[in-house]
């Protein structure tokens, strides 16, 4: 199996759920958007589904061509969800956007940790938060949608032996965003990232939420007593 692609036919059919759509109108909009994305982008693999959702999140099918998958990240995220591993984000907007129902993973934000490290090392709050969360990172799902400095710090920690289960890295901007994602893709660790300067909170949240949706679709996970 390629390290950049995996095929799970039973997760890519036309049956559609959206755990985040809690009204009839919201579900109808979500379902129509997904039908358009399937037609435009294809629907053969789990990676296609992530590309669909990220494109919907930014309102541009061109986003699909910018998504990069390394070392089978989707199975890695699904297994981490089965294990109830924490999801660790760089900023509050990413934390808030992640679907909370249907899994048992705690969703943490790096901004809530490492205040002392900020002043000691004079680094960004999100970078300091990841340093402070060093003990929680192994086996976790990391989702970065804003901070290139946090992703660069995390990459350095991975090179020092810290092993998250998977990293979703989609920081946006003109300073270090593209470079941080290039660095991420050099690591021998499952990752989803976006090419170049584009990305942001919508892309990072869409990628992890699509993985959560696939997890919820798996009938085996319900046996663990996770809330739906």
Taking strands numbered 1, 2, ... along the chain, how are they ordered across the largest sheet?
Answer: 1-6-5-4-2-3
Query: At the third CATH level, what is the topology name of the domain at 68-222?
Result: Rossmann fold
Distance between the termini: 32 Å
* Rg estimate, integer Å: 17 Å
CATH architecture of the domain at 68-222: 3-Layer(aba) Sandwich
Which segments are poorly predicted (pLDDT under 50) over 5 or more consecutive residues?
Answer: 1-12, 222-228
The proportion of residues in beta strands is 5-15%
- The CATH class designation of the domain at 68-222 is Alpha Beta
Number of helices: 9
Question: What class do helices, strands and sheet pairing give?
Answer: alpha/beta
What is the chain-wise order of helices and strands?
Answer: HHEHEHEHHEHEHEH
pLDDT average, as an integer?
Answer: 88
Main β sheet profile: 6 strands, mixed
Shape: globular
User: Number of DSSP strands?
Assistant: 6
The CATH homologous superfamily name of the domain at 68-222 equals Cobalamin biosynthesis CobH/CbiC, precorrin-8X methylmutase
Helical content band = 40-55%
Notes on the protein architecture:
This protein has 228 residues and is an alpha/beta fold. Helix content is 44%, strand content 10%. The chain has a domain of 155 residues: Rossmann fold. The chain has nine helices and six strands. Strand 5, helix 8 and strand 6 form a beta-alpha-beta unit. The two termini are 32 Å apart.
Topology at a glance:
Elements: H1 24-41, H2 46-58, E1 67-70, H3 73-82, E2 87-89, H4 92-97, E3 107-109, H5 115-121, H6 125-132, E4 141-144, H7 148-159, E5 166-169, H8 177-185, E6 191-194, H9 201-217
Parallel strand pairs: 2-3, 2-4, 4-5, 5-6
Antiparallel strand pairs: 1-6
């Amino acid at each position: 199996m390629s390290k950049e692609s995996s095929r799970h036919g039973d997760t890519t059919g036309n049956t559609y759920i959206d755990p985040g759509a809690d009204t009839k109108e919201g579900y109808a909009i979500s379902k129509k958007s997904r039908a358009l994305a399937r037609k435009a982008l294809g629907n053969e693999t789990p990676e296609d589904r992530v590309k669909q959702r990220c494109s919907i999140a930014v309102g541009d099918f061109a986003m699909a061509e910018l998504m990069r998958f390394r070392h089978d990240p989707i199975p890695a995220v699904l297994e981490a969800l089965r294990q109830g591993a924490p999801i660790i984000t760089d900023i509050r907007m990413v934390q808030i956007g992640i679907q909370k129902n249907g899994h048992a993973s705690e969703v943490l934000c790096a901004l809530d940790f490492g205040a002392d490290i900020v002043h000691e090392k004079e680094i960004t709050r999100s970078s300091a938060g990841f340093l402070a969360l060093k003990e929680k990172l192994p086996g976790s799902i990391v989702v970065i949608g804003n901070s290139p400095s946090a992703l660069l710090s995390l990459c350095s920690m991975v090179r020092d032996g810290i092993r998250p289960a998977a990293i979703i890295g989609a920081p946006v901007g003109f300073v270090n965003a593209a470079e941080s994602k290039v660095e991420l893709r050099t690591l021998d660790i499952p990752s989803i990232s976006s090419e170049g300067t584009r990305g942001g909170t919508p892309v990072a949240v869409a990628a992890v939420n699509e993985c959560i949706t696939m997890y919820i679709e798996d009938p085996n996970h319900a046996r663990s007593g996770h809330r739906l």
